[in-house]
Amino acid sequence: MVDYTALAPVGILVVTAAVVLLAGLVVSQKKILGYITLVGLLVSLGLVLANWNIHVIFDGAPFYGAIVVDPFAQIFNAMFLTVGVLVCIASLKAYGDHPRQDEFYSLMLLATVGMMVVAISKDMLTLFIGFELASMATYAMAGFDKKDPKSIEAALKYFLIGGLSSSLIVFGMSYIYGLTGATHIDAIAAAFAATPGLASTPAALLAITMLIAGFGFKMAFVPFHMWAPDTYEGAPSIVSALLAAGSKKMGFAAAFRIFIVGLVAMKVDWYIAFTILAVLTMTVGNILAVVQTSVKRMLAYSSIAHAGYIAIVFVIVSYYPAPDVAVAHAIAGGLMHAFSHALGKAGAFIAVAAIGYMILSKDGKVDDPNHIDNYDGLGKRAPITAFLFALLLCSLAGIPPLFGFTSKFVLFLASIEAGLLGLAIICVLNSALSVYYYAKVVMRMYWGEPKGEAFIESPTYTFALAIAVIVLIVLFAMPFVTPGDSVYIWAETAAKAVLPALEV
Amino acid sequence: MIPLQYYLLLAGILFAIGAYGIMTLSNGIRLLMCVELMLNSANMNLVAFSTHTNDASGQVFALFSIALAAAEAAVGFAIILMVYRLRAEIDIENVNLLRW
Questions:
Q1: Residue A323's closest CA among A185, A189, A177?
Q2: Residue B51: what are its φ and ψ, rounded to 5°?
Q3: How many angstroms separate the CA atoms of A143 and A147, rounded?
Q4: Chain B neighbors of A132, CB-CB under 8 A
Q5: What angle do CA B65, A81, A111 make, to 5 degrees?
Q6: Torsion sign across C-alpha atoms A425, A427, A433, A439
Q7: Which residues contact residue A384 at a Cβ distance below 8 angstroms, ignoring those fewer than 6 apart?
Q8: Nearest by Cα to A166 from A117, A129, A140, A137
Q9: HEC-encoded secondary structure of A169-208
Q10: Which of B4, B10, B20, B57 has the highest number of chain A CBs within 10 A, making it the mutation to test binding with A?
């Protein structure tokens, strides 16, 4: 008898999504559906944490190895579920009176399911299905404010670019399948290793170009990023939180599996591509973030810059001829940075949602509630929200004592350790540049002139922000309190799960 | 038996037509059709490779991909319908509230 408990977190979410959708038809008090969603997410997260294990806890034998729950998948699952919990708490407030909130919650649950399926997939087919499930749910969510032209525009752009990226991915996958005759990622790696000439055929180059472009759209690498700022700005703020923190990290989960495991034989081909993409992405993202006047759009560009930092993992992995300690450190750093960025960015977008809500409900009609001018003096008008928002921005900027510092430190250190000093310098300079625009928001909040009287802060939003900040601080403090069981150890075991050849 | 290259060539041409359409057209429905064309060219590749190597997994992949494309089209039409209700047109050149 096969033990399926490792798949229970995904199953619970699917059941919850169905229950919420069906209950929405009969329940008159729809507010309760949000709490059902929250309970489903928390139970699922609890199961992931309870089964937390440094070994593969489900090897996918009944699915021919297509579904594998290894430490890598566990870290990503925990990340997606934490983001889901944060977004769910925030939407209790944001959509608490919305007549169609049942649809919102079930879409959010299905998006989370899709992301988790990507994380546990070891087969291109399941990976693509999960990818599409998450994408389709988020297309609909981006346009959830149907009366708001910006939201619809965000959904339209996101959908068209998302459809394009899906078709590029599946076209690339079809060529990989044609070359190797396999869809399982390990089998693809084995086929490439068995036939050395295969990796340099034109068909393989075409496939890898398509896959880089396809996943590049999802991860919003420059020059595939044009949709991201528009979508993140136009979509409802809490949906932007899910997009930036969940959907984008799903792209990384898929790309880690496909490139680092499946196509590792072709790393010579993607070394240059990813070097250029990573440097361009972080530089362009940071420079454009500096000039933004909308805080939400600034966060969107900073999200692009962070994708650039995580992309250096691919550069380091492909730089080495054989797997090495530095490679393990790089993947571990990438995972940690994905986690810290997911928490920080989800929190920051929720803070934007909270502040926008307060401004709209107090100051009445304003052109753009996310404009930086409206953030003047928030430290006095909404002290708790402003404080938590400032802490989240510090984490994104990489200032201790928050987890954003640890993850950036490990990631950049791995780059130095790998001998890619130039890349590390570019990263650090970019990081320094990013402090400018984060600090600008904090300055305006604390030293700007308040534009009106104090706000009434919503406890629901504050609670979600507080959770994000507490998790970031706990993860930062962990290596000092329990050195043998810290997040770094988990990330490193996950790195070894990705690359079994790593003997560290 | 038709050689594999012909299928790949046809799929490549379909893909190129789709990509060209995405870059040049501005009508929402046409863009959606172009995306479908690109997705289906990949399906054609999958089936061609699958028949060529006598391995069924490619055809299974293609079946799933067709289902996903249909679902994606449904979401896409819903979004385009919302654009139409708001603006009484689906020309995406005019959907330009958000820019940097």
A1: A189
A2: -65, -40
A3: 9
A4: 68, 71-72
A5: 30
A6: negative
A7: A457, A462
A8: A129
A9: HHHHHHHHHHHHCCCEHHHHHHHHHHCHHHHHCHHHHHHH
A10: B57
As a whole number of angstroms, the distance between CA B49 and CA B81 comes to: 37
Q: How far is B1 from chain A (nearest CA, A)?
A: 18
Residue A313, Cα to own-chain centre: how many angstroms?
15
What's the token pair of residue A232? 């993140």
ipTM of the complex, rounded to two decimals? 0.96
- Measure the CA–CA gap between A443 and B93, rounded to whole angstroms: 38
Residue type, A385: T
Q: Which residue has the tokens 């919102």?
A: A104
- In single-letter form, the type of residue at position A229 comes to P
- pLDDT tens digits for A319-373? 887 777 888 889 999 999 999 999 999 999 999 999 999 888 876 777 788 889 8
Mean pLDDT of A21-38: 92
User: Cβ contacts (< 8 Å) between B32 and chain A: which residues?
Assistant: 163
Backbone angles phi, psi at A363, to 5 degrees: -85, 0
| Neighbouring residues of A438: CB distance < 8 A, sequence distance ≥ 6 | A302, A393, A394, A396, A397
Q: What is the pTM of this model?
A: 0.95
> Are A21 and A103 contacting, i.e. CB atoms less than 8 angstroms apart?
yes
DSSP character string of A57-75:
SB--GGGTTSB-B-HHHHH
